[in-house]
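In the lab's daily routine, each protein ends up as an entry in a very long ledger. A line of letters takes care of the sequence, but it says nothing directly about the fold. The fold becomes a row of whole numbers, each drawn from a learned catalogue of backbone shapes. The protein below has been through that process, and both of its lines are reproduced in full:
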Amino acid sequence: MFVPSFYREPDASWMVDLVRGNPLALAVSNGCPEDGPFATHLPVIFDPARYGDLPGELAGATLLGHMNRANPHWPALQTGGILLLTFTGPHSYVSPTAYGTTPAAPTWNFTAVHARGVVEKIDSTEETLDVVKATVRAYEGEFGDGWDMTESLGYFRKILPAVGAFRLTVTRAEGMFKLSQEQPAEVRERVRESFEQSACRYKRETAGLMSRLP
């Protein structure tokens, strides 16, 4: 991912926060010349066995994911192979009306993280179940209502043969936080205020990140 210097994350924790808050990744790996690359949307979490809370930075972190074994992407994945996970965070269109200057050009403010790493496919049924349970716990705690999975564990075991789980050790991570940093401070502040006052949730979330800029 091409990241101009002024769009790089102000702190390594920004990438960790984006992955945790936007955990539906697009997993991409090489395919054959005829069909091109494989790309699969899938849920990803930080490995709870390694982190009591969250790692300090994304590079070197261990992530867990799973996909349907019927997906042609699954047999194409190989332990020791490279997988790219892309995550998209808050983003929104920027109209020149927010700038208060002329001439101007519209653009798109957005946030994204690319995490590249080495895959370890998980063969054990119990370890695969652990990944599923850890994913439920992470998402219920962050996005759900605290659902208790206890009475559904039998159902989990029934569908487990269709689940392919993997572990990914991140070898390289890049973050793009394009939040009007190239604009003069007063223009950037007008963009932030216009987003903050918008009824659009995406604009308000983007404004929140802009408020965190140094």
Remarks:
- The mean pLDDT is 96.
- Strands lie at 24-32, 36-46, 62-68, 82-94, 107-122, 163-178.
- The CA atoms of residues 66 and 165 lie 4 Å apart.
